[in-house]
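Async update (no meeting this week)

Hi team, since we skipped the sync, here's where things stand on the single-chain job. The sequence we agreed to prioritize is pasted below, unchanged from the tracker. I ran it this morning and attached the output directly underneath so nobody has to dig for it. Comments welcome in thread, and please keep replies under the output.
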Amino acid sequence: MKIAIIGAGAAGCFAAANIPYRPDLEVAVFEKTGKVLQKVKVSGGGRCNVTHECFDIPELITSYPRGKQLLKKTLYQFGPRQTIDWFGQRGVKLKTETDGRIFPVTDDSQTIIDCIWQEMMHNKVQVYYHKSVESIAFVPAHPDRFVISFNDKSVYEADKVLIATGGFPKAEQYKWIETLGHTIQTPVPSLFTFNIPKHPVTELMGVSVPDATIKIIGTKITQSGALLITHWGMSGPAVLKTSAIAARELADRNYEFQIMVNWLNDGKDVEMKGTLLQLRKEQGRQLVQNKNPFNLPKRLWEYQLQQCGIKEDIRWGDLPANAQNKLTEHLLRDTYSVKGKTTFKEEFVTCGGVNLAEIDPQTMQSRIVPGLYFAGEIVDADGITGGYNFQHAWSSGWIAAKSMAGEVKS
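Output:
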């Protein structure tokens, strides 16, 4: 039996690593570039955010804006705990950081790549590079077999095919899958940063706030986390999570919208009023600029004071009521107009893909074409930043591998 895996990313390689070698089984991985596991290599700043320490599956699923119906079945079969065990059994120790993200103790993504690659080689998997698929069809004389045609005019016949290419940014890139009878949820970007052109806040590039809350004005979408000011606008987990949750909404708005930032995360008016009142009483002779009661970065604090017209020589005891009100607004409800987004090719995540209703979550096999399987981001399931997308890749790749190898009944 021949198994063809299209795509040498996280899902495809992990599937290949989980198909045990048998003399009667040939497993071939086809990759359109010259490298394997490229996203794994660059993820987490080159450290690889393998998964997330959330072992409660219903809670874990809340970190996926799309795909919950599929994920609530796949993650029970192979979730974060199984991922940790899988790598641990192969000598890779993982560590959990304070925010729940899990990395190899080496802080080097190559550790994860080498582990998966060694398992693939142990299973005698064949890997072919620079193989871009043009079409998948059925062999005329054998309607239960597939023939894959590549752009270099070569072909490969297989009994089972796993599509694990990752997501495509353009709808036309899915045409070869649609010809097999599958429908595609229109792809739009997820996990992108917000462009705020020509705004003075961008002069604070490099400033990071550990806990801030972002709300997209006109919606109920709110997310919290670290926020990073960049030379083009805003980034960081709070922004990336917001973009994932609101991927379709923001695409519909052509990436022109307003956000409201609470620099104090969950800070409220009544708390702020109390803090400022206490400062006026107890620290009245202190310069406002020198006494930052909210632990904000110095540059951000000074910027906000400038935006409120609070001069350098103003003391807390002399702060006018209208300036105090302005400061409250700026810290709790700071508004910005976003025009455009920035995506990073190697970390690009797609909202959209193969319709989940057409996939059996117990096996990752197509409900339309027997012998055809899907894993990873090619399907309409994606998570926020924090190791969730890799977990989906491991889960779906593992399930597809077990099914194709005949270890799970289809």
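Quick observations from my side:
The CA atoms of residues 7 and 165 lie 4 Å apart.
The first strand starts at residue 2 and ends at 6.
Reply here if anything looks off.
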